[in-house]
Structure prediction request, 446 residues.
Amino acid sequence: MNTFKMLQIPEAQRYWIRQARVPICFLPVAPKTDVDRDGAVLVDLLVDQDRIAAVDPAGRTTSADLPAIDLEARHVWPTLIDMHAHLDKGHIVTRTENPDGSFAGALQSVAQDRTQRWTAQDIKRRMEFGLRCAYAHGVAAIRTHLDSPEPDQAQRSWAVFREVRAEWADRILLQAVALLPIDAFRTPYGAELADLVAASDGILGGVTRAVGGVHGRLLDDIDPLLDTVLQLASERGLDVDLHVDESGDPAATALAHVAAAVLRNRFKGRVVCGHCCSLAVQPEEQICRTLDLCAEAGIAVVTLPTVNLYLQDRRGGRTPRWRGVAPIHEMRQRGIPVALAGDNCRDPFHAYGDHDMVDTFRQAVRILHLDHPFADAAAMTGPVPQAIIQAGPLGTITTGGPARFILFNARSLNELMCRPQSDRLVIDRGRQVSAELPEYGDLDGI
Ligand SMILES: [Zn+2]
Prediction:
């Protein structure tokens, strides 16, 4: 009998979720009780309206007067954090395909789609579709990059973002990063954009691209450009979030330059580097040197395994030889915070995806070997990005925090990994989320 299907979230203001299995990495305060082989504990969660009133070891508290559901040792996670997305280009794949699935093809297709079709209405419609997917899947916070290569587009996209951020504020915490090739900071537009970002309460970003597109050496003036980005951010009190070395070419070594720039400028804000793929194909000694520098500079890394697997090492008619991902085990061993995120969704950079962090986790475990043991791998979907993007208590399960959970019909991480968890229950403010995944038909005519 499928007792999970029969679960009814109580209507009461206060109720217990009993025998919930929670990985301790999601619990800022770990209760004193046995830890299973997946690093999870059995707890009883007391929900009081929209908050968590208690996280107790299972079976210790008896207040039989309150309604309760019994999860019979199934997993409960907090709603998760996707700290690197591209909501502005999502879901354009059906109208503007990547001709060959390559990185160069993606750049070209997106530029074409953006210049011809990104009206405010178009961007908003696709962003909302993405957010509806994310919310139904149990995502609580998203940091999205916004293509901002020239003033008109930037003004339009950021205006839509500010509107959407306000409309979704009660369901998904939204942050945005300005995205453009770092060369643009040679011109006065850099300061103009930094002003727009500051006025929008955003984050300054950029792509540390290489000369001649995807492959080849770094820009000759990468160091002064990084200095400019950090100075513009510093003057306005902004954090920085960069796309770094999204390439399989060992000559892409911008990560070390970013770390050196942070130290040279004594930058006080937070710095995130996304991707860092090419680090994995550099000599071991160079990897160690760069990572030591990143640790010293306090840089956080976000890895985007599904998109790296899709884009890196792709050449027509040839089987890929590497997975495209950054050496994140080595980063974590040095204490560098590493988060997992979804990146592109149904656009020319990645044809697939559904804004589902549970799917991202399940794929990441396989691509990055986050298992045997799982240890605290799940932290990369909640507490780690929460600390990096300063998302308050989201992505954790803590007394006084929001009653936002994902309930799984899985008693172990193996069971959670082996099925897509399409039957998960998402709880927001103590109530079951009734919103369903949007129909693809909602995008017809875009
Ligand atoms: Zn990205």
Q: What stands out?
A: The CA atoms of residues 75 and 412 lie 7 Å apart. The chain has a mean pLDDT of 96.
